[in-house]
Design goal:
Blueprint: H1 3-21, E1 29-41, E2 45-56, H2 59-79, E3 87-88, E4 93-100, E5 106-121, H3 128-136, E6 140-148, H4 152-177, E7 180-190, H5 205-211, E8 224-238
Antiparallel strand pairs: 1-8, 2-5, 2-6, 3-5, 4-5, 7-8
Length: about 240
């Protein structure tokens, strides 16, 4: 096969691929419309990531301090109605602490033991005092907080339905303005759903420790907006 024929073969394959992937064009009149659906949902739970750490010359002493901090944290959580199954801590790490000398040598000066803990809070309006106790205690360091939903797929489905209804209403309005009516759907394309990464705002730990904030003032949890977009091609005809 010469160069010209190879070029035509490749071009034909390329055009065939485009025709297979693009939405088929209709012989009838149509209109392309985008739809937007948004749903405001209050989170179902909060995940709190806390780091417990201690640095001592003796690794056993450092670990014991971390274990004591975990025991106290578990006790406080129990006092605030947090179930044992909602407290997870399966890993503990040790990091030797070295001091480098001027002669290029190093000297072991201690051990830093770290134990991460994950706590799930399921009744959000009741845990202000618990969060404040965690913030006030200098043995605990909050690494991350995130909010979540028990049924994210259900919320996404509701937002998608709102987006489709929005697209339908737009198409009917535009078609009627032009003396047309919508008679069917030729194709639908769903855009990626926007599920927010929920954020919980709290006062800073130093501020909480110094001000001894009133109970509940550290939590500011708001509804989260879940959005969905669709593209719809509607078939039209004269009204």
């Amino acid at each position: 096969m010469n160069t010209h024929n190879r070029f035509l073969a490749v071009l034909g394959t390329f055009l065939f691929t485009i025709s297979m992937s693009a939405p088929a064009l209709s012989d009838s009149a149509y209109i392309d419309v985008s739809g937007q659906g948004e749903l405001d949902v209050y989170p179902d739970f909060l995940t709190l990531s806390v780091e417990l750490s201690a640095t001592e010359k003796d690794v056993v002493r450092a670990k014991n301090k971390v274990d004591d901090a975990f025991a106290q944290l578990s006790k406080v959580a129990e006092e605030h109605g947090i179930a044992e199954d909602d407290i997870e801590s399966v890993r503990i790490s040790n990091y030797p602490q070295w001091e480098y000398q001027g002669n290029g040598k190093r000297e072991l000066i201690g051990h830093r033991v770290i134990r991460p803990v994950t706590i799930t809070l399921r009744t959000l309006d009741k845990y202000g005092p618990f969060l404040e106790e965690v913030l006030i205690d200098e043995r605990y360091r909050i690494q991350n907080t995130s909010l979540g939903f028990d049924k994210p797929a259900e919320h996404e489905s509701k937002a998608r339905r709102l987006a489709l209804l929005d697209a339908k209403a737009k198409a009917e309005e535009m078609a009627a303005t032009l003396g047309q009516k919508v008679t069917g759907v030729l194709w639908i394309q769903e855009q990626a759903a926007h599920f927010p990464q929920p954020v919980m705002m709290m006062e800073s730990a130093p501020m909480m420790r110094s001000a001894k904030a009133d109970s509940g003032s550290g939590m500011k949890i708001q509804e989260q907006t879940i959005s969905q977009q669709v593209q719809v091609r509607f078939e039209m005809e004269e009204d």
